[in-house]
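ok trying again, last paste got cut off:
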Amino acid sequence: MSATLPAPVVSIAYHSGYGHTAVVAEAVRAGAAAAGATVHVVKVDEITDAEWELLDASDAIVFGSPTYMGTASGAFHVFAEATSKRWFGDAWQDKVAAGFTNSASKSGDKLNTLQYFQMLASQHGMSWVNLGLKPGWNSSTGSEFDLNRLGFSSGAAAQSNADEGPEAVHKADIATAEHLGRRVAEHTRVVVAGRAALAAAAV
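nice, full thing came through this time. structure:
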């Protein structure tokens, strides 16, 4: 990354009911930080005015929630509705966005949650970054330890057994979430650099 350009700022806005999704959020954070981003992690059920300002100042926002009853958690929905204040003022227009989710079932209707995040981002005029991985674990030579072992494309999906704690989040899902964090940081760096180049060319 050029020394003349600031690091992209990525914020992770998430809710975790029992700690499993928090593990996935940490993996996204680690991946984005490893790719050179400045990363903020915001628990949406405890969000403060200062953290709203962090989101407003971010170049990218990654949404995360467990999938409960086929959609994001109630706590995340409360946060999403509160973003309407940003929507009215186009505060998040053209930011980069992405998403991740977790549930106990391998499918568990997680796609619906990721599509909910995509719709939220679209309403704000944000640009969605997908996972960018082929499906794993879909052949006789595949393994449950493949990246993207659950075969989602629009975001990172994790599966955690209902009778186990956060320490049992699958290693492949953690690695997939780290990949998403790196991908978001890399895409955001391109956006930030491109805007800086366009601004310089206009002078």
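cool. Residues 69 and 140 are 32 Å apart (CA to CA). The two ends are 23 Å apart (CA to CA).
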